[in-house]
Design a protein that fits this description.
Blueprint (H helix, E strand, L loop, with lengths): L1 H43 L6 H30 L5 H17 L1 H15 L8 E4 L2 E8 L3 E5 L5 E5 L6 E3 L5 E9 L5 H18 L3 E13 L4 E9 L4 H19 L16
Antiparallel strand pairs: 1-2, 1-5, 2-3, 3-4, 6-8, 7-8
Length: 272
């Protein structure tokens, strides 16, 4: 009796049940190996790539591998049950073409978003200018980029439309402060105390990440001699540093009794 049952159900148990189980286990094992390999690659690149970008790319690759292995496993299982996969593949190809035409803009957005992330064009928190709209990047997705202007407006760009980007946050900024001084002042003394002030400011202001110096006299105006101080700062922090330097210069000049001139008009009385 058992021999008869084995003849009837044996092939079924070995092929139609054991086969799919082995295919699923193999697909899961292969997926685990691939994802581990991807994570290992990006772990090596952690010093070269922002953590958020790394996680985004890993997620994209893992999802792609998951769906590819899922389709392959389903086709292999159908083949075990004697279902022809040639017609299915043909149908998938036709559906894929139609779907591709229908969602080609979405696909362009996704590819452009992935390109922005991989090429490190900008990241959340960067100050950028896109199509003459300047602001801080609020979010960077695979389809859209949101930018908030300093005045509060939020612009949403489709990634496929982003072709030119000016990123103000990728390198250090330069603070430039012009300091007017009266013609009656001793320029050697002014130069000396401004040099001393630069040394003091560099120790106090942590936003200054490079050299700060008084480069000397830059111009002669109608009522003033102009000195200039320059300082390398954290990206987009030059305005804060410029305000800080101006405050310190005013305090110093008040202490040293150095005059900051203002435009003056001399009026002659023709009756004299």
């Amino acid at each position: 009796m058992f021999k008869d049952l084995n003849k009837i159900y044996g092939p079924f148990l070995k092929k139609e049940i054991i086969g799919p189980i082995l295919i699923i286990i193999g697909a899961l094992f292969l997926y685990s190996i691939i994802t581990h390999f991807i994570k290992r690659i990006f772990r090596v690149r952690t010093n070269k790539m922002d953590e958020r970008k790394s996680k985004t790319i890993i997620s994209i690759l893992n999802n792609a591998c998951k769906y590819i292995l899922l389709i392959i496993a389903i086709l292999m299982i159908l083949d075990l049950y004697g279902i022809s996969t040639n017609g299915i593949l043909t149908s998938i190809g036709i559906v894929g073409v139609v779907a591709g035409l229908a969602v080609q803009d979405i696909l362009k957005d996704i590819l452009s978003g992935a390109s922005i992330i991989v090429e490190n064009q900008y990241a959340v928190g960067d100050v950028v200018s896109i199509d003459d709209f300047k602001g801080e990047v609020l979010s960077l997705g695979l389809r859209t980029t949101k930018i908030k202007a300093y005045t509060g407006e939020i612009m949403i760009f489709a990634n496929r439309n982003i072709t030119k980007v000016i990123n103000y946050s990728m390198s250090k900024s330069l603070a430039i402060v012009n300091i007017p001084v009266s013609y009656e002042e001793d320029v050697e003394k002014v130069q000396k105390i401004l040099n001393q002030l630069c040394e003091k400011i560099k120790k106090e202001n942590k936003l200054i990440t490079g050299d700060i110096s008084c480069i000397g006299i830059t111009s002669f105006d109608d009522s003033s001699i102009n000195f200039r101080i320059t300082a390398l700062t954290e990206p987009m922090m030059h305005y804060d540093v410029e305000r800080f330097i101006l405050k310190e210069v005013k305090i110093l000049f008040d202490k040293e009794k150095i005059e900051i001139p203002f435009p003056q008009v001399v009026v002659h009385d023709a009756r004299i």
